[in-house]
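In the laboratory, one determines a bound structure by crystallizing the protein with its ligand and collecting diffraction data. In a computational setting the workflow is compressed into a single prediction: the sequence and the ligand go in, and a structural description comes out. We illustrate the idea with iron/sulfur cluster.
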Amino acid sequence: MSGFGLAAVPANARGVCYSTNQCPERRVLVRTAPSTAQMARYHIETYGCTSNRGESRQIERALRDGGHHPADDPKAADVAILNTCTVVEKTEHNMLRRAEELDEQTPADLVITGCMALAQGEQFREAGIDAEILHWDEVPEHVRNGECPTTTPDAEPVIDGVVGILPIARGCMSDCSYCITKQATGKIDSPPVEENVRKARALVHAGAKEIRITGQDTGVYGWDDGERKLHILLERICEEIEGDFRVRVGMANPKGVHGIREELAEVFAEQEKLYNFLHAPVQSGSNDILGDMRRQHNVSEYVEVVETFDEYLDYWTLSTDFIVGFPTETEHDHEQSLALLRETRPEKINVTRFSKRPGTDAAKMKGLGGPTKKDRSSEMTDLKMEVVGEAYESMVGSEREVLLVEDGTEESLVGYDSAYRQVAIPGAENQAELGEIVTCKITGQNTVYALGELI
Ligand code: SF4
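The predicted complex, in structure-token form:
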């Protein structure tokens, strides 16, 4: 995917290059096998420094949260993830060789991420390796294959550093033809608002500065009770819980949001604790394909959601997902998806090349050829990088309030501004602490995140 050939970005997601004394080591993360046949089995190999290992841990946590399982061997995996390092030339050769082996010797779909993927992604393409080249953050969404994240049955709030994860409900109201998650989670099951507020309060009391609200489809929270209540829950969390914290809302399908778009946008506009961020996966710009996918929304409903948020909010982030190469997708359908992306210009976009999941209706459809899917995926990824890059470029020179939530490398700290745009602040470690809200000037961008300087 040429859009990821960020030749000018010899840095990791935290905005700081790895130094040669940091990462000569090879690390391999292989977990023991599982066996829930229906979800994806993954294999992760990690090379390089502690930061890269941290990225792999995050990927793995997201995959496990999504109901996927580690394979005991790359040959038994559905997806092999190679988290690369590019510290010295010898390492580069090793990365290329290993990528070739995984591509040729295993049936797994290959995903290459990490520093070499971001800085020299074209080398893998030039070597003829068939792989998706992705930023670390995009890997879990890619493996999810367009499905919603799976909240595990025993999902309870957890704290990870200064981030509290709050699953508000399990299940969804849809029956997407490509989805295997649904078989594991069933229909939406929403605990009362009161219970979720109590859990959110407990997270804040335990030190959470950012609460991440999760679920398969947060937009239909309360539907099983006869009333969609996401906006009510958000308002109550923001108004009733004292303290300095922010709230990020996880994936909400366009159909669920559409019915409460005014109410929701109003709460976002009124509540400063809420990140102005909406993840509404559209998946296609063609109503024919949305019908074949059995998505419940149509393109107009998605556009109406975006327009409503545009009316209420001056500065916000639209995040969406596209599945490219669905079995019935024609060239015209694909063009419609590209047009929708150009029209709505999301600031965060996940592009997934369609692949079959066993037992789903979409798996029974006659698929498109690999080269067609690959070409469409590359085309959409190029456009995505242009659109997202523009959004980050427009931040340069501005001042932002950033909540610091993670360590980066080489004394950098990483956080999110009010619209949940990621900002890496090199050298901040000695001047600020995780959980703090700092003011910074945006000095640059690396297409998928911004770089800042403390003021
Ligand atoms: S909304 Fe669709 S993709 Fe998401 S969990 Fe439900 S059936 Fe699966």
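The first strand starts at residue 26 and ends at 29. Keep in mind that any predicted model is a hypothesis to be tested, not a measurement.
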